[in-house]
Amino acid sequence: MAGVGPPPKENAVRRNAVDLSHLEGDDDVPDKLKKLFKRDGYSVATHRWWDTWVDSDQSESFKATDWQRLQMLAPLVEAYYKRPGHNALAEIRQNESLLGATVTDRMRLRMNKKDNDQQGSEKPSSLPENVADMDLYRQLGGA
């Protein structure tokens, strides 16, 4: 098949670390941004949509601007539930995609709960067979 290129090496090891600093949450987010503004004016469907976002794993890494984006989307979601249309749905989907709504979006944004949990450990528990332990090498008199 043209354009695919050669197959990857069987023993390939990725050595460049993935920067996950964008996944660090903002502790300074005011609680008022996490609550749906004028909640009584929205339908139960919009409440469920909002509560799903608030309880989602990705909301742990939201900054104030992300919460503001959701606040701005709420009226559009409400309008969509009242009168569904493809234009409103496309706008909602595009905005939610930027916040990591689907598995594909989270893969593109490199959002992974496992990566977030492992962020503190600098050294893996064991090295692959074809990788040298540089600390051991230095202890044995290497450079």
Structure description:
This protein has helices at 44-55, 64-82, 86-98, 103-108, 113-118, 134-139. The protein is built from six helices and no strands. The protein starts with 43 loop residues before the first helix and ends with a helix. With 143 residues, the protein is mainly α. It has a domain at 30-114.
Percent of residues in beta strands: under 5%
Q: Could you spell the SSE succession in H and E letters?
A: HHHHHH
Shape: elongated
Spans where pLDDT lies below 50 across 5 or more residues:
none
The number of helical runs is: 6
* Overall residue-averaged pLDDT value: 82
Helix content: 40-55%
Structural class: mainly alpha
User: Based on DSSP secondary structure assignment, what is the total number of beta strands?
Assistant: 0
N-C termini distance: 46 Å
| Rg calc | 22 Å
Q: Which sheet architecture does the biggest sheet show? A: none
Short description:
The chain has a domain at 30-114. The chain has helices spanning 44-55, 64-82, 86-98, 103-108, 113-118, 134-139. It has six helices and no strands.
Which structural traits does this protein have?
143 residues; 0% strand
Spell out the blueprint of helices and strands.
Blueprint: H1 44-55, H2 64-82, H3 86-98, H4 103-108, H5 113-118, H6 134-139
Helix pairs in contact: 1-2, 2-3
